[in-house]
Amino acid sequence: MATNPQAMQNTPDVLNLIAGEWRKSGCADWIDVTDPATQDVIARAPNTTPDEMEQAISSAAEAFKTWKEVPVSERARMMFRYQALLKEHHDELGEILARETGKTFADAKGDVWRGIEVAEQACHAPALMLADSAENIAGGIDTRTITHPIGVCAGITPFNFPAMIPLWFFPLAIVTGNTFVLKPSEQDPMTPNRLAELFLEAGFPPDVLQVVHGGREQVDTLLTHPTIRAVSFVGSVPVAQHVYRTSTDHLKRCQAFAGAKNHMVILPDADKQQTINNLVGSAVGAAGQRCMANSVAVLVGETREWLPEIKAAMETVRPGRWDDEGAGYGAVINAGAAQRIRDLIGQGEKEGAKLELDGRECTVEGYPDGNWVGPTLFSGVKPGMTVYDEEIFGPVLCTVEAGSLDEAIAMINANPYGNGTSIFTASGAAARKYTHEIEVGQVGVNVPIPVPVPFFSFTGAKGSFYGDLHAYGKQSIRFFTETKTVISRWFDSGIPAGGPNLTINMK
Ligand code: NAD
């Protein structure tokens, strides 16, 4: 097992995992990692140098030559050990994650758990990689397909799920026989490093996973490097577009998961209290920094009269530091993000939305410097207003009104995003109509955050996803593998030898 000297020396410098060793970068410029509740600098992430990037990529390429030959059952056995280690260290990972993201401890553990579930799914690789075969497709000829790994894959991940999202990618890529270079978010790099330490402890060869830190420059190296065969990205829309365009322009396979604006449609026959509780949790949980948060409530018909109760429920939620058990959510990731959210709230007011609850002046006792934004509620929001059109990524709920389910569907289908949506209703017919007609990749029926478990795939759509094959589930196995089709015939099967065959055989 490789030991991370970072922990031993108690240095705040985040290390890279290159060629099986934890190495301190020789870069000149470092990126501060701050505690969102205090602004204390808790670590520094490197801007990994071009030389170090090259070492990581070539080490992954070298490792691929032998790793792809390891039987899939053996690779899966290592993954069984890894998922067990992740569970054993669940609390510890939750705390590291909570400290650097500001999430509450309970929510941080949820982030880790959703990643563990993907590692569990990766243990099924031997069955998931099985492919097709057919006998005697023509006289004496059999055909079979083989799934095999593609090479060195790269993952570029966002700040908001520093355990779950790296785990969406590297376990499935590696268990299928690839090697992997991970470039986590520079804002919370310590959780991914701990995931990588446990990965080595599980017994994987030390060079099949490389972890390099940094930002745009390091990402661009991965997108353009000829050795990288596939890129998995999660982050904001402009960066997702850049990643998809650049990596496909460099002839790579790419799956790029982007930003979102998710709607929860509320019909008058829905269970009022259940709906309001679920809506508020979805909109402000994790400070609204979830790509699947329902940040727009579509109040259909008389549900517009539920507004005072929605407001009252939001007023019961307060933010706090990660270890405050009474807090509903934590601080926003950084001061710039908090200011952007406050500015957008101001913009919403200016553009005519009614600010029912204003979280801009929120404070938390004992933490005067934290990135706090209180629960915020707008009514009278309309498409075309900035608070409707832009992803706010803060604890801000916009309510819009619709006269009918058809009107709600038309509004949502006109929205460029398509990550998630929910409908709350007691009517099976209305839910059936909604799930059939809505042009969004993931739909919850009385479920506020419809993130699929890992034996399905995460199927964001429209402007929330660029690519073909989605994360985890069967689609991920296809993303990380290539198909080879073998058509074979043996001449001892009694086929008479004739002269040269110069035509396409039709039997
Ligand atoms: P981000 O786009 O700022 O960063 C994502 C990654 O890209 C990071 O690793 C970052 O270092 C890198 N990066 C940043 N700017 C870059 C640039 N100009 N060129 C190349 N690389 C760059 O996103 P974020 O703020 O970390 O994460 C929040 C966003 O991610 C939100 O928009 C959210 O909706 C989205 N998200 C989407 C999903 C999904 O499944 N669709 C899931 C989680 C988060």
Give an overview in words.
The protein is of the alpha/beta class. Helix content is 37%, strand content 21%. The chain has 17 helices and 22 strands. A 7-stranded mixed sheet has the order 14-15-16-13-12-18-19, sandwiched between helices. A 6-stranded mixed sheet has the order 9-8-7-10-11-21, sandwiched between helices. Strand 8 (179-183), helix 8 (190-201) and strand 9 (209-211) form a beta-alpha-beta unit. It is globular and about 85 Å long. The structure holds nicotinamide-adenine-dinucleotide.
Protein topology:
Layout: H1 5-9, E1 16-18, E2 21-23, E3 30-34, E4 41-46, H2 50-67, H3 72-88, H4 90-101, H5 105-122, H6 125-128, E5 133-138, E6 141-149, E7 152-156, H7 164-175, E8 179-183, H8 190-201, E9 209-211, H9 216-224, E10 228-234, H10 237-249, E11 253-257, E12 262-266, H11 272-284, E13 294-300, H12 307-315, H13 335-350, E14 354-357, E15 376-379, H14 386-389, E16 396-402, H15 405-414, E17 417-418, E18 421-424, H16 428-437, E19 443-445, E20 461-462, E21 465-466, H17 473-479, E22 481-489
Parallel strand pairs: 7-8, 7-10, 8-9, 10-11, 12-13, 12-18, 13-16, 15-16, 18-19
Antiparallel strand pairs: 1-2, 3-4, 5-6, 6-22, 11-21, 14-15, 17-20
Bound molecules: nicotinamide-adenine-dinucleotide.
Residues 156-161, 183, 185-186, 215-216, 219, 234-236, 239, 242, 257-260, 291, 391, 393, 419, 460, 464 line the site of nicotinamide-adenine-dinucleotide (NAD).
